Structures are given as C-alpha cells and as structure tokens.
Amino acid sequence: MATTTFLGNATVNITGPGGSVDVSDNCSSCTITVGYDALEATAFGNTGHQFVKGLQSVEVSLTLFNSYGSGEVEATLYDVVNGGTATLVISPSGTTESATNPEYTITGCFLESFTPVNSTVGELSTQEVTFTGGTWARDIT
Prior knowledge:
The protein is mainly β. The protein has a single domain (11-39, 51-139), classed as Pnp Oxidase, Chain A (Roll), CATH 2.30.110. It is built from one helix and eight strands, in the order ββββαββββ. The chain has one helix spanning 73-83; strands at 11-16, 19-22, 27-40, 51-65, 85-91, 103-111, 126-132, 135-139. Strands 1, 2, 3, 4, 5, 6, 7 and 8 form an eight-stranded antiparallel β-sheet that branches. Strand 1 (11-16) and strand 2 form a beta hairpin. The longest helix is centred in the middle third of the chain and has 11 residues, at 73-83. The protein is globular.
C-alpha cells in the first residue's frame, strides 16, 4: 500500500463585512470538520436504526496569533462578530486548488465570540476561534 506524508501549510482567507483578509501568516492551526446531520429514518420492521443525510454541518477551528491594525486578526474578527456571518476559503497547501490540494469554501458561517486580548508574560498572544454553520463546498479545479 502506497503512503504519503503531508506537511501542513494551509491558506486561510476570511471575508467579513470589512472585506477579505488572508490570515495564513497569523494562523498556526486549522481544522475543518464537514459532514451532514443524521436524520433517523427507522421504520417498523427495521431491526436497527436507519439514517438519511440531512443538512450540511461544518465547524472550522483556528489558532491565530493576535495582531492589531487594519486588515489584521483582531480587526477582522471584530468585524465578523459584529457583522453576523463570514465566508472562509481554506486550502491545505497554497491557493492553487487541485485534486491534491482541494479548496474548501464555507459560506455564511457564524463566529460567536473571540478573544481580542490574551496576554501572558513571555508568551506569544494567541486565540482559538471556532466558526460554525453555513454551507461548504469542495473545489479541485
């Protein structure tokens, strides 16, 4: 069985009310979880639970280095939290999508909260944010 090793170098672009910002240079971790809600379709006579695909579900978790100023992490997340929803465009490695580098676009996702100040002496200031909801699409062209 052939195996490959992948060195993560994701690109992360957030579009909110304030415009589109590439936060890749301030992102140290990115996790996308996509799928569908499971709707129970068990009927009389079935001997086990049966399920069918429901609505799309998505969750994106990012670890970001805090940075301040126009077009930086804090301003971007502030705009998204106050503006309602965002669009995220994420690829595992670079912005050229292909079969080996699929691009995920998450439209209409919600950011409930963020941590604009997280300061400890001698440590880089980071924050964990989680976007939920919206719809996702995968593109390889």
